[in-house]
Amino acid sequence: xxxxxxxxxxxxxxxxxxxxxxxxxxxxxxxxxxxxxxxxxxxxxxxxxxxxxxxxxxxxxxxxxxxxxxxxxxxxxxxxxxxxxxxxxxxxxxxxxxxxxxxxxxxxxxxxxxxxxxxxxxxxxxxxxxxxxxxxxxxxxxxxxxxxxxxxxxxxxxxxxxxxxxxxxxxxxxxxxxxxxxxxxxxxxxxxxxxxxxxxxxxxxxxxxxxxxxxxxxxxxxxxxxxxxxxxxxxxxxxxxxxxxxxxxxxxxxxxxxxxxxxxxxxxxxxxxxxxxxxxxxxxxxxxxxxxxxxxxxxxxxxxxxxxxxxxxxxxxxxxxxxxxxxxxxxxxxxxxxxxxxxxxxxxxxxxxxx
Length: 355
Ligand code: KG4
Ligand code: ZN
Fold this sequence. Notes:
Helices cover about 45% and strands about 20% of the residues. The chain is α/β, with parallel strands linked by helices. The chain has two domains: about 5-115 and about 320-335, Nucleotidyltransferase, domain 5, CATH 3.30.420.40; about 125-215 and about 250-320, Nucleotidyltransferase, domain 5, CATH 3.30.420. The strands form two sheets. Strands 3-2-1-4-5 form a five-stranded mixed β-sheet, with helices on both faces. A hairpin with a 4-residue loop joins strand 6 and strand 7 (about 140-145). The chain binds 5'-O-[(R)-(carboxyoxy)(hydroxy)phosphoryl]adenosine (KG4) and zinc ion (ZN).
């Protein structure tokens, strides 16, 4: 029995999880600094770093308490060393090195994207490589083939915004706050299907993505709607100067319609490219990871469309889709089994991509 403690600080979540034998999640503690970034509409690196420093010890204590373990009962220390915000990664890596050194335990450096992909396998042991991996997060959108021995073959990635970033930017445009993905997910349920549609344009290359065109279409649509309303209220004011002017912001139903229209387009782009990857490679299993994998429309649409082609899709439970320490500990088990232990000189690699 091997118990690994996994540390994750690549963005705004300070997270530590403990996993036994790469499968059983004993604890998964998370402290998020998301509310500190809300007023800025996105993650501010300095604020994230400071929050990691302030909360990491408390998160460790909670992870140990929830698992009912002492530090001495942990067999290895794993940590995300990239990709992510450089300063934020440094906090986690320095903390991990301190623990590994003082406890005399191996240190395992984990690629954040590989950990996101492993989350699907962790809960569904019968999802065996090779399969198509889809990473959909705030910083990345990519398709790859996940091979055995923790090897990855990149098929394509986003050429501009990550899909989570597009959700966040559209939410900001609609005045829905940060992070936008979960709000758009919820609000889209109230949107009328097909009331607003956006073009499904994406990158030309078969497996690459592009979401900036979709984001711009949403922006232009909202501008046109607002201008139309302002014009309408001007005409009305001219005709009847004593009548109250019409609102110049979108009403709640219009916001829900735009959210639903955007989400449908983003999901369709992801589904189309992922199924194309299955068709071209002949693989009939898909594992999805990253924060956007928590999106309910993506989960249902990909599952249904794939099933129609006899393709199986595995999504991690929502708590393992967003950044967490358990996925880091789980992926580290795969690496430890292959002797892939890191030296104490390991440095952060903010641009790491599936090693
Ligand atoms: O994987 P993650 O927690 O952090 C990164 O590695 O980036 O992903 C965060 C992203 C954010 O952009 C957030 O808006 C998005 O995941 N997200 C969602 C949902 N939950 C989180 N997007 C769509 N629907 C959701 N339910
Ligand atoms: Zn992530």
